[in-house]
What does this fold into?
Amino acid sequence: MNANSPSDPWFGAKAILFDLDGVLTPTAEVHETAWKELFDGYLAHIGSTEHYRGGDYFEHIDGKPRFDGVRDFLSSRSITLPEGGLSDDPSLNTVHGLGNRKNKVFNDIVSSRGVAPYPGSVRFIAEAEARGLILAVVSSSRNAPAVLKAAGLEKHFPIVVDGVVANAKHLPGKPHHATYSYAAELLGLPTNTCIVVEDAVSGVQAGAAGDFHSVIGVNRGAGTQTLLDAGASYVVDDLADLL
It folds into this structure.
């Protein structure tokens, strides 16, 4: 646990708003694999001498809505593509086509491997519920309900604000705090009583940008200092560290 963490992180909180991938489930690793497969294939297709690098995920993609991740990665390579539309076929080389291609790869991997939640996160959920806190998931992913169901966690989260909800409500994605603020609104709670739990820099920035109780950073690879610099109140390597 980071030295800045409080002795009682629960004090004054009424709800916990969790990111999903990388916080509750190790699906961030699946996302990273799917992004690598997508962009390695696309860059080879256009004859680019540049390759997808390990740091690209955390620098340009992690925690963002899918199509924002496509745009930001392509921008890092000075590539501009037509936007296309949400229903673009995955074979199309448009922003939405590439995003849908990545989604197909992700779902294929999840279907073949299944999803097992982090044991420490499961213990943390149980403790939060025992203390009477309300739980919600706030994820940029459009696959959040399916992943929660596959991991056996859906019963713990009466509210899920995912990429589909954000699009329907015209909410800007992380690093804006809108999706987290909307989750608090759905719970009927002031934001300053809601803890945000995130592993992505953009997600931590979202929590820090709003008037939330605190922002717990979970270091799954982004780096402790990086998450603190992004605005985390404190950082742990696993949520079980807070028990």
